[in-house]
Every structure is written in C-alpha cells, then in structure tokens.
Amino acid sequence: MRLRTTGILSVLLALTVAAPASARDVGKIAKAHGYGAIADQLVAASRPTEFFRPAGTGRLPGVLGTSRLGGDPDLPVGVKWPRCKGKPQSFLAQVRVSDLPSGAGELRRLGGTLLFFTWVEFEEGETEYGMWAGDCSAVLYARPGARLKRTVAPGGGTVMRLKPVTLRFAERPGIPDFALDSDHLMPPLEDVKPAGGFDGWFSFQEALYGKPFVETKLLGYSVAPNGGDACSARAERPKDTWRHLFTMGPDDDFGFEVADAGRLQLLISPADLRAGRFDRVCGTFDSA
Q: Does the record's keyword annotation contain Magnesium (predicted)?
C-alpha cells in the first residue's frame, strides 16, 4: 500500500521505534500495521510475555534462589541433577518467580524458584559451543521455603557452562505466531489468516516487543520451530493446547550458542501450569 501523506508515515514509524508496547497498545499497533480487521481478536488473545534482560555479569549472587542465567544452580536439597541418557544436562537459568512482573500471575502465585536444564551435545574435546540440544530437558521447582544448595554439575559427561548473568524482566504482550507450514496463526487464532504474510507479521511483532529483540522469555506464546515434532504439535492443536513456558534463544549477552542460532522451547499442559507441576514439560529445539 502506498502512503499518501508524510503524516501517516510518521505515525507508523513512531509506533515502530517508540517505547515497547503494553497490553493496551495491541489494538492500536495492530491497526497501524494493517491488521485492523482482527485487532479485537488480537487484543483478546494477547498474553503477557516476560523477556529476560541482563542486569549484571560475572559474579554469582550470594543469596540462593535468585533469578539468574548460568553459573551453578541452587538445587533443592535432596533433588538430583537432571540427566539425559545417563549424562548430566546443562543448567540454563533459574527464576525466582516473585521477581517477575505482575502480568506473570500464573507463576507468581506459586512462589519459589524454577530451574531450567537441557541436554547439549558437543564435539569431542569441545566445551563451549554445542552441536545440538534438547533431546532431554527438565524444569525443577523449588517450592517456597525449600532448602537450597548451590550445586556443581556432576561428572560423567560434558555440560555447557554459561557465564552467570543476573536478570531483570521486561513484560510485553505476546500474540500467536504463524503455525508450521501454514498461512494461518496458531491457537487460539487458528482460523485467522493475516494479510501481509510472515514479513508483515514479524514487523508487527517487533513493534509489540521492542528492540533489541531477545528470544529468551517466559510465558506468552511459542513459535513454530524450523521443523516440528510431537511436542511443538501440542501447541498447534485447537483443543488442550499446550502453553509456552520457557524459551532459551541465541543471545550474545547470555552466551547460549548451540547449532546454528539454536533455540530451545519448553511447553507445558494448561492443567500442569495451573497445578504448579513442572515434571512433564516437553521440549523442541531448532536452528536456522
């Protein structure tokens, strides 16, 4: 569409580069990007997404259970380090849920700390950059009041050691992405076919999330991977649709470099999320 006035162009640019959106901005930004016909549906479907932002690097905090990425995790006393095929998984992040913004109420109400792990494959002799990940993943839940112990990864396999980075969180409204190999969106908007295709939708998402775009996040929506699996399919079915819990994406600040811009996504059933059960999550890993 050709813009006829510089005034309209200025408005669109302002919406694209201005401060990141809050939930009340979803409809306004949707209309500015040509999605006025589905703006109300997008507003209704939007969910808070908690993006990870670095707050400090290089030193483990003395207080146990605080939110951070990398370093040595604070495991609940008596809980074993997660393994995959007999080998230890790599520790990614832990989140004290009380640190999350108010929109993450379905996690904040649980209290305690969530710890995220995944298996990473390495070339022989390599300990920094992984070849592949995600064959196994685990989420440990340290309930409120649980005794914690800072724990070093056990022997018997190579783990990815990420530098410790303390975290802050930026809350943005999340919207469904395109379904895998489809011109329609993922549930709950599986009947919606947005105009403008993938490029237009990505531009709309950038306006919602703000720049720089960082993929590591909690809640919101998952993204259809580059090649689906049984786990990602659960996020695309219209009934009993699994929820996005956690994504670990490639990012220089966090040092997660696996495969070619590899991204791990963990999904959880709605019933387990309500019940505070995290021992049945599923994961999908893809790369560029």
A: no
Classify residue 251 by its DSSP letter. B
Q: Divide the 288 residues of the chain into consecutive groups of 10 and give the mean pLDDT of each group.
A: 32 41 85 94 95 88 94 96 94 97 96 97 78 94 97 89 93 94 94 90 89 85 92 95 96 88 96 96 93
CATH number at residue 111: 2.30.320.10
In a domain, 70, yes or no: yes
Closest CA to 114 of 80, 159, 68: 68
Residue 11 forms part of a structural domain: no
CA gap 260, 188 in Å, rounded: 30
CA nearest neighbour of 36 among 47, 23, 27, 48: 27
Amino acid, res. 145: G
Range of the domain at 93: 17-286
> What is the crossing angle of helices 6-17 and 197-209, to 10°?
60
* Rounded Cα–Cα distance for residues 272 and 247 (Å): 18
Question: pTM of the prediction?
Answer: 0.90
Assigned token pair, 148: 């914690």
Distance CA 47, CA 69 (A): 24
Total domains in the fold of the chain: 1
C-beta separation of 70 from 93 below 8 A: yes
